[in-house]
Design a protein that fits this description.
With 228 residues, the chain is of the alpha/beta class. The protein has 4 helices and 15 strands. It folds into 2 domains: 9-94, Transcription Regulator spoIIAA (2-Layer Sandwich), CATH 3.30.750; 122-223, 3 Solenoid (Pectate Lyase C-like), CATH 2.160.20.
């Protein structure tokens, strides 16, 4: 389960890349916290486009340029700086950075679903997650690839794996029992939804698309039929 904290740096997926929101603190400490976060997730964030929300901070051109260069060294592209400070906005524009990002349109309902989706923030992972990799977000997670044993996916919302799910997965990690886990081959080492842990039965049939959900206080797996 997540513990409620106010992180110095928080990340979420947006239409144009990743939005990073900075918490309270002195700029040198905040900058180092951001760079450390990027270093820890370097493999996952490699090539990412990053928009930075600095609130009402006044950031000079030298500090902003230094941060952009250090992120570039880590193969992360700082493309936008969002701020309520006019001076910071002007500095960003001078450095050729955007000061606005696209506001996502409300998600359209394209088919009836039993699951209630809380929000629309999601992380899209276009790769196989190998042992030692960990993806964690308060939104949804979509993996286009496999989740191998030893890899972890933790989401506050739903988890969808367009491949084989054989690692550890925790959906609805903040207590949302309406969350689901879907995979083309659902055979995790551990599967949790909210505070419930599934008991993985022995697989006696060929792999098939399945969805795991909470039903009457238990985690069950059934055929994943997109027409349902």
């Amino acid at each position: 389960m997540f513990t409620e904290q106010k992180p110095i740096v928080s990340m979420k997926g947006v239409r144009d890349g990743l939005l990073v929101t900075l918490g309270e603190g002195e700029w040198p400490d905040i900058q180092e916290a951001l760079l450390n976060e990027v270093k820890e997730k370097r493999d996952f964030l490699k090539g990412a486009r990053l928009a930075l929300d600095v609130g009402n901070r006044v950031i000079c051109a030298a500090d902003m340029g230094t941060l952009r260069d250090r992120l570039s060294d880590l193969e992360v592209n700082l493309w936008a700086v969002l701020s309520s400070s006019t001076a910071t906005e002007q500095t960003a524009q001078t450095l050729g950075l955007a000061t606005r990002i696209t506001t996502p349109r409300p998600e359209r309902t394209v088919r009836p679903m039993d699951t209630h989706l809380e929000g629309e923030n999601a992380i899209f992972v276009q790769r196989t997650l190998r042992s030692g990799f960990k993806v964690e977000t308060r939104g949804h997670v979509v993996v286009l690839g496999d989740v191998n044993p030893g890899a972890e996916v933790i989401a506050g919302g739903n988890v969808i794996v367009w491949g084989r799910l054989r690692g550890m997965v925790h959906a609805g990690a903040e207590g949302d029992e309406s969350a689901v886990v879907c995979a083309l081959d659902l055979n995790p080492t551990q599967l949790r939804i909210a505070g419930l842990v599934a008991v993985s039965p022995q697989k006696t049939r060929k792999p098939r698309p399945e969805v795991a959900r909470v039903h009457e206080g238990q985690v069950i797996a059934e055929a994943w039929n997109i027409k349902d």
